[in-house]
Amino acid sequence: MYETFYHMSRTPFSRSIPTNALYASHPMKEILGRLTYAAERQLFAVVTGDCGTGKTTTIRQFTDKLDASKFSVLYLSDSKLTPRHFYKGLLEQLGCEAKFYRGDAKRQLHHEIELMRGIHGIQPVVVVDEAHLLDREMLEEVRFLLNFKMDSQSPMALILVGQSELWNRLRLQSCAAIRQRIDLQCKLGHYDRSETGAYITGHLKYAGCDHPVFSDGAIDEIHRYSGGAARLINKVCTHSLLYGAQNAHSILDDRMIKRVIEGEFS
User: Fold this and answer.
1) What is the C-alpha to C-alpha distance for residues 57 and 77, in angstroms, rounded to an integer?
2) Into which CATH architecture does domain 26-188 fall?
3) Binning pLDDT at 50, 70 and 90, where does residue 149 land?
């Protein structure tokens, strides 16, 4: 609807935007570089961030940049992940039927990974999303999983992704053994005012909109409300564009953004 009014060829604030068209701030580029290094060196990395700061989007960008001839990404996202379902999920993605008992399934996974690395020269990258929901037993299993060949090497790159509370849990004394194995820690922050403006401009450009739609004051209001969280920026911008198209406003100013926020998000 609003795309036609603003002469857009694509939807600018959609989750379906290709990863190569997404806005990448300088901190984001650093995180992507760290994750690539973790994949290459088979390290254990933890990515945390507040709700809506783009954790899963970051992982999409990271995995899309990996060379598929060198890396195989195994992705799990389950709020009630147990060790048995963990091994079952990974083995199924490798085309195998997992053995019933946890110990057998773990040895089976190690065997499949050795074949993958030794014969095909492909390094596995395991990504566990929503990791802040993992229970103590599952976190302990992660530690045991990484104990490979008398702890002389890691069988895979492992990346845990979760909300900020994940790192708060890992800082507890009871999680010291797990925390000590972490090679890289990445924290996703909120966009500042300048980054929020660049984010909006970049997404409008992707949509084929080469003229300004949001005034500087409008961007100030969007940043104030969203706190620099990408998900909220998308939400406010989408609702504001709908409001602007319905009321024939070619430029959206701060008063209009306030009206949208007060009318639809309060």
Assistant:
1) 14
2) 3-Layer(aba) Sandwich (3.40)
3) low
